Amino acid sequence: xxxxxxxxxxxxxxxxxxxxxxxxxxxxxxxxxxxxxxxxxxxxxxxxxxxxxxxxxxxxxxxxxxxxxxxxxxxxxxxxxxxxxxxxxxxxxxxxxxxxxxxxxxxxxxxxxxxxxxxxxxxxxxxxxxxxxxxxxxxxxxxxxxxxxxxxxxxxxxxxxxxxxxxxxxxxxxxxxxxxxxxxxxxxxxxxxxxxxxxxxxxxxxxxxxxxxxxxxxxxxxxxxxxxxxxxxxxxxxxxxxxxxxxxxxxxxxxxxxxxxxxxxxxxxxxxxxxxxxxxxxxxxxxxxxxxxxxxxxxxxxxxxxxxxxxxxxxxxxxxxxxxxxxxxxxxxxxxxxxxxxxxxxxxxxxxxxxxxxxxxxxxxxxxxxxxxxxxxxxxxxxxxxxxxxxxxxxxxxxxxxxxxxxxxxxxxxxxxxxxxxxxxxxxxxxxxxxxxxxxxxxxxxxxxxxxxxxxxxxxxxxxxxxxxxxxxxxxxxxxxxxxxxxxxxxxxxxxxxxxxxxxxxxxxxxxxxxxxxxxxxxxxxxxxxxxxxxxxxxxxxxxxxxxxxxxxxxxxxxxxxxxxxxxxxxxxxxxxxxxxxxxxxxx
Length: 588
Known about the structure:
Elements: H1 3-6, H2 19-26, E1 35-40, E2 43-48, H3 55-62, E3 69-73, E4 76-79, H4 80-96, E5 105-109, H5 114-125, E6 129-132, H6 139-149, E7 153-157, H7 158-164, E8 175-179, E9 190-191, H8 192-196, E10 220-226, E11 234-239, H9 240-260, E12 276-278, H10 286-298, E13 302-305, H11 311-321, E14 325-328, H12 330-337, E15 352-355, H13 363-371, E16 378-383, E17 388-394, H14 395-400, E18 413-417, E19 430-435, E20 442-443, H15 447-453, E21 460-468, E22 474-479, E23 483-486, E24 489-492, H16 493-501, E25 506-516, E26 520-529, H17 537-547, E27 556-560, H18 574-581
Parallel strand pairs: 3-13, 5-6, 5-7, 7-8, 8-9, 12-13, 14-15, 15-16, 26-27
Antiparallel strand pairs: 1-2, 3-4, 10-11, 11-20, 16-17, 18-19, 19-21, 21-22, 23-24, 25-26
């Protein structure tokens, strides 16, 4: 029986090609996805032959899109040519005014503004390393990122500048650049607009060449911080090869879907209609930066930014800008399709809805197909350490297996292993290990953490428990790392637990996820109060809120006097507590 016969939502006789045959055809000699093996840090690694050699090469090639709009933000429009001129100008500022050279680190901490893209491209085109920090972070979290990364310059918006201002004298920066910050709030920071001019003047910038810097594919390019189990985040050091590989990975899924349905993928038509993407996730995450900013720039697409996420505003922009693709995390898609204003707007331009970064209900696929009949829904799996994409599941494959994150992209090897690191059988549960040219070089200044996560022969330990079926489709079952995901934001339980322990009267603490239909999970906590002490839930939440970002604050803290359940080894039985906390799923 064919997959189509088992699933009435699939076309008759689908799939025309097996997954193995489709991938073999797409990666055969002479195709855009042809592969070869090269040496990457002493490890033979399979790569795409067509991978651009550096982000600088992608930037230079994108200038050819000229007068097309690249970024649209709240009424502002920035063309590819003017964006390139602004990037060139700011690169000169970094080099000439602040002495930034190849290998130096530049912190970038701001919400999604057009300037985010300018700073990113200017930094990496110099051969310097961009360090995007989570704009939701507290002052302490931002200061840690700047200090730990050893950044030479920090580029921030007004909100981030206000948070770090008290610590600036201790951060040893050669310069601080403030974006969209009123003069009376800048302090000693330089105004971005005074350094290269305002957006309406970008067209008159010289657009001259960058300083002559040789950039190798395996040179350092990015440090994205990912939460660690020690309570402090780790800086994942990525290379130009990592990010450029992700660009080709992003192009692979649509081609594979066409092959599976018996169609031959065609090369993109530069003169064809411009694609339009609604950016609804932060650029400081790998998804926003690697898979949206870089990928859309490289293909000449228009990126529509929002000042802040709002489903009704998203619907307005979909109609206004004729958006083809939107998504982010499942929560955002749910909010759009369940908006009371959904029927007020024309969403007929949408032909792609993609998401990842959090658990999603299989029923979401059905709703997407109902409301966006032209769309090919997709999801995938990736981590900061895998430079975004590792697997993709799209179109008919996603309809057929809505509970899978898909098979690995061609340049990635994956396996599920047991506690000894030995591969388990088909559909047996094991930890997912990943190998490929998208794996980051290391954790910045953390050799022990690097050694624990990446083997000498290049295998990255994801910490996620999976099963892999006979066709290579991966099913995420649980997270071996003590982590939960709220609306796409990773939250490590030990970080919140450490803060809870610091509150007077807390004897024991455990943090677990509370199921949430839209966000995936909310943060929940159980604490044991010390004998003779009294603890107020509201005060405890406020305490956490003063030390951690708001999205990490538990929505429910259950206070107990009896000990928390533990196993014979003394470890808290979080499975039991997770089940206990499900009773709050509809109450919070």
